[in-house]
Amino acid sequence: MAGLMDGKKGVVLGVTNKRSIAWGITQVLRAEGAEVALTYQGKRVEESVRTLAAELDISVVLPCDVTEDAQIDALFAALGERFGKLDFLVHSIAFAPKEALEGEFVNTSREAFRIALDVSAYSLVALARGARPLMKDGGSIVTLTYYGAEKAVPGYNVMGVAKSALESAVRYLASDLGPEGIRVNAISAGPVNTVAARGISGFTSMLKLHAERAPLRRNVTQLEVGQAALYLLSDLGSAVTGEVLHVDAGYHAMGM
Ligand code: NAP
Question: Does 40 qualify as catalytic in the annotation?
Fold first, then answer.
């Protein structure tokens, strides 16, 4: 049977290990026939990303620290050479200094604020700009966000502010790139036990609370986030852009 992503080529940024949301997305995309390139931030994780890539027969694995413009330029030059065009890009990247993810938000330092916004929000803008010339036949860009962008979630702190900026950036990018057939959307995922999530103080109780209060009375899996990404990245989502799609077992719909 034909896959929903047959003939589509793209890049997924943010796979670190098997628990990464980006890994769930990559698995679904590969199963539907997409050609996928993966990236790694630095030498520290290169080997593990290459090992994971091999599991899914992915041969294009490239470096990209999103705080370095030169690395972003080199990434798209390499993707242009290998693929000739891009149909999709997945941005599954966030970072804030640990001390900013505990205690009171009011104590966030200027430097922690700058780093969190740079890595977690500005990077989407820089990557969209880099992908644009390669998305000759239109394209689809998906980023990952969290409910802490909309409401104050204790412990999420500066990351919530970064996610608000990210969600706003999704709308502005959708506006700029829409005339070229490039769609830009975010998935607001419920809590998933990953390396990034474990950096948030009180994350275990966050998982428990979500499962108790969400209408579906459970948490979500990486593969479920992957399936929602498939909808947005494939032609199924062809008229959807500038959207924040909640994949959180319905948690966001509750008032209490
Ligand atoms: P993860 O596996 O730790 O993924 C985070 C990724 O960001 C890692 O691959 C990390 O690379 C990368 N990264 C950080 N700084 C970077 C930089 N300067 N350049 C390039 N890559 C960089 O955790 P995850 O939970 O799957 O996170 C993926 C996305 O989902 C994030 O945007 C996160 O906020 C979002 N999200 C997560 C949850 C959740 O509960 N897990 C819920 C909603 C949204 P290194 O490992 O090399 O540092």
Answer: no
